[in-house]
Design brief:
Distance between the termini: 26 Å
Number of strands: 17
Helix content: 10-25%
Radius of gyration: 21 Å
CATH class of the largest domain: Alpha Beta
Oligomer: single chain
Strand content: 25-35%
Number of domains: 2
Shape: globular
Length: 358
């Protein structure tokens, strides 16, 4: 138990520091490095990242692939006198099997159970149809799509990149590439694991050539990563569940690194959550290949078992991700680093700059 409050993780961020576009070239971001014991800071660039790794490190990436989860629908009129409404935004958040998805529907006030939605393609032809099965809080709906031959192929054609709510623009053609890591391969995220956005294939080749081992996990990022924490006390925070998987190859790489006391470097908070959830699931045993769900919440006082260094972007005030970073490097150290980043005009959030904490 802690006496910390969610408001203890607040900081002042000028609106103009929230990156609305990716850098002109992938990998050209700035990077703030921190010694997580002393709190010492150093201004750097992401191009310097390979020089901060050690021969024998295990670098762990999240290879989840972002799907074009933002769709636009039309209502089908349920009553003869009901007036047509404008387009309905349907943000897919979690697959539930059997053509069913949880989704955030906006505006959702009139979208009741039994409502049928149609999703037109760019030519105006109906590409998908769905029925609302359940109604939840804050616009959440369980919807069921009518069966089609290749759902994801249609999604690629009519869907939009699910940019975070703090990016105040429509998605652009460039986002289909830039809001995706170069190593993504497993479909399922509705938000990018943003620490991985900085890497280029050339940098990964250089890192491997320098004797750093690279492994992959998969954690599908849900929209809950952006959801505000609706409690006051940190002890009362409860997170959404996210699906993850660890292959036999990665489990063995992690076990070997632990046995040989080599550093495990997590690329992003999603990798930290995956590794630490898996470690707790394994207990005193070695990691094994498995798939599961986790709602692990990491805040100050948490004891890390696997992550020895962390590359991460800058996170929202009063967010669970900022709490995770604070658990890793100390709340005062992290908030001091964020103040420095604001004063030094770093770019924040998904398309922004990054930090390396070791």
């Amino acid at each position: 138990m802690t006496d910390l409050r969610v408001s203890d993780f607040d900081f002042v961020l000028p609106e103009e520091l929230i990156a609305q576009q990716p850098p002109a070239e992938r990998g050209q971001s700035r990077m703030l490095t921190m010694d997580r014991i002393s709190g010492q800071l150093h201004d750097s660039h992401f191009s310097d990242f390979p020089s901060l790794l050690r021969e024998g490190d295990l670098l762990v990436l999240n290879d989840s692939h972002v799907i074009p989860a933002r769709l636009y629908a039309r209502r089908t009129l349920r009553r003869e006198k009901e007036k047509p409404t404008g387009r309905i935004e349907v943000m897919l958040t979690e697959p539930m099997g059997d053509n069913r998805w949880h989704a955030l529907v906006r505006p959702g006030r009139k979208i009741a159970i039994g409502e049928r939605l149609v999703f037109p393609d760019p030519d105006g032809q109906i590409a998908l149809e769905a029925e609302v099965l359940e109604r939840g809080e804050f616009g959440d709906r369980l919807i069921e799509f009518a069966p089609v031959q290749d759902f994801f192929l249609i999604l690629d054609r009519i869907g939009h990149v699910p940019l975070p709510p703090y990016i105040h623009r429509e998605d652009q053609s460039t986002d289909h590439d830039r809001y995706q890591t170069v190593f993504s391969r497993e479909r399922g995220s509705v938000a990018a694991p943003t620490a991985g956005l900085h890497f280029t294939p050339q940098m990964l080749e250089r890192i491997a050539a320098d004797g750093v081992e690279i492994a992959r996990v998969t954690l599908h990022v849900g929209l809950g990563t952006f959801a505000p924490l609706r409690v006051e006390r940190v002890d009362d925070v409860r997170l959404h569940r996210e699906r993850y998987s660890i292959s036999a190859e990665t489990a063995e790489a992690v076990n070997r690194a632990r046995r040989e006391q080599r550093r495990i470097v997590a690329v992003g908070t999603t990798v930290v959550r995956t590794l630490e959830a898996a470690a707790r699931r394994a207990g005193s045993a070695l990691l094994a290949a498995h798939s599961a769900e986790t709602n692990i919440f990491i805040a100050p006082g948490f004891e890390f078992q696997l992550a020895g260094a962390l590359l991460t972007n800058f996170h929202l005030p009063q967010s669970s991700l900022l709490m995770l970073v604070s658990a890793f490097a100390g709340r005062e150290n992290v908030l001091a680093a964020y103040r420095h980043a604001v004063e030094s005009r770093y770019r924040f959030f998904s398309y922004g700059d990054c930090m390396f904490l070791a």
